[in-house]
C-alpha cells in the first residue's frame, strides 16, 4: 500500500488482519490437541507467517511495527499451544516448541534478500531509480525512517562488513536466518 505520508501503519494492520483470517481458517488444525507441535509449527510457517509478512521486505519499519507483529505472532502461537500469559510460559519456550524463528528475524531476512535483488539490478532499472530518487523534504525533528536506513541498520546488526551482493550464493548464506531445528 502506498500512502502520501510514506508510512506503513495501514499495511502492517492489514497484514495482521489477513494473518488472523488465515489463522482462523486453519484453527481446526492449529488448535487440535491431538496434532503434534511439529505439524502445527509447519502449518504456521507455511500458511500463517507468509500472510503476516507479505510485502514486509519493502517496509521502512519502526520498532512499533515490529512489536505489533511480534505480539500478534505470539498470540497465535500461544492460542495454538493452549497456553495463556497467566501460565507464565516464556515466549522462547513456545517458539522452541514450534521451531519458529522470531518474526523480526524473518523480516530482516526478507529485507536483506530484497536488498540483494535490488543491488544486483542495473543502475538503469526502475526500482533502483525510484529508490534513489525517493527523498523527503527536511522537517523539524528526527528524519523519517526510510527503507534505506532500515536496511543499513540490518546490515550493521548482521555484521555484514564487506557487503557484496553480486555473489548471490554468498549473500544468501550470510543473510539467511533458518528456523530452529
UniProtKB/TrEMBL annotation:
This is Jg18926 protein. It comes from Pararge aegeria aegeria. The gene is jg18926.
